[in-house]
Design brief:
34% of the residues lie in helices and 17% in strands. By secondary structure, it is of the alpha+beta class. It has one domain: Metallo-beta-lactamase, Chain A (4-Layer Sandwich). A 6-stranded mixed β-sheet has the order 1-2-3-4-5-6.
Length: 131
Amino acid sequence: MLPHALNKGKRLKLIGLSAHLSTIPAHYLHSSGNFHLYDPRAQILFSGDVGAALLPDSNSDLFVSDFDRHIRFAEGFHKRWMGSNSAKRVWCEKVASLKIDMLCPQHGSIYAGEDVERFINWFDELHVGLY
């Protein structure tokens, strides 16, 4: 179990700037000690493997342009690699409370605008993990 403070996340002050990034706990959302980074000024969530999609070459746009088509390429990945429904629920509740203009996974396209909320709601309802 991680120390209590790490379960809540922390603010990281950027030296020399009047800005900070926030760590968002994403434990068991692919790896046990996973964190995501949130930039509140830019309203960008860097979400690691959450939101990732294994896209064919013909559908490798920088931004999601058709959510319903795109999410098919994310479903199997999330069902297989996200290990905990309860951890997923905690993450969804936390990020739903943030102002996010772009959700940027490390694989696939970026969710922007209304597609951010659509993704969070979709992910919240998805059954993941083995149990």
